[in-house]
Write a structure and sequence with these properties.
alpha+beta; about 10% strand; exopolyphosphatase activity
Amino acid sequence: MLRSVSEFMRDAALTVKSGSWIKQKQFRFVVGNEACDLDSAVCAVARGLLLADVLEGSSVEKRVCAAPVLNIPRSELCLKTEVVFWFQDNGIEPDSFICW
């Protein structure tokens, strides 16, 4: 299933926030570097999307999910201006970020 990055981020955030991921057969969190610089954040999202598409498109049951995690507290997200700017510039809102 091909989907946009913004759809993937929104769906992953909703799955995690709702707690429905607990019912999944398998769930993968893709965690970026604790520096949460732009390349780390983009790589976590890209790897999460790739992993989700590979797992969901395989013969494995559809109850397999993956979600990218920005490895910082949400309260520190405002300090990562380049990360927030780049994602917003590419149509991805900060509400769809999963932070620890």
